[in-house]
Amino acid sequence: MFNNFNAEQARKNVESNQYTYERMLREILTNTESASRMRFRMSSSSYEDTAENQEILSQVVKELKNRGFGVVLNQVGERIFVEVSF
Q1: Which has the least CB within 10 A, 2, 20, 56, 63?
Q2: Is residue 71 exposed (0-12), middle (13-18) or buried (19+ Cβ within 10 Å)?
């Protein structure tokens, strides 16, 4: 079965840029699981560099480390990249 994600949903995602701890953790875990299925040893996700996102990321990083993942945050311009290794 294919994913039914479309351009309209993508536009709505961009417009609703509010992140929660649950959403950010879910996205990073989904990316990491997908990467592992493709036989990669790391995944990368990026988020806008805002005070709110930094606060949420600190909690997400703690949870990821509790699950045994290695996590590195890299700030590039106005983005924060989350690299998860396993």
Answers
A1: 2
A2: middle
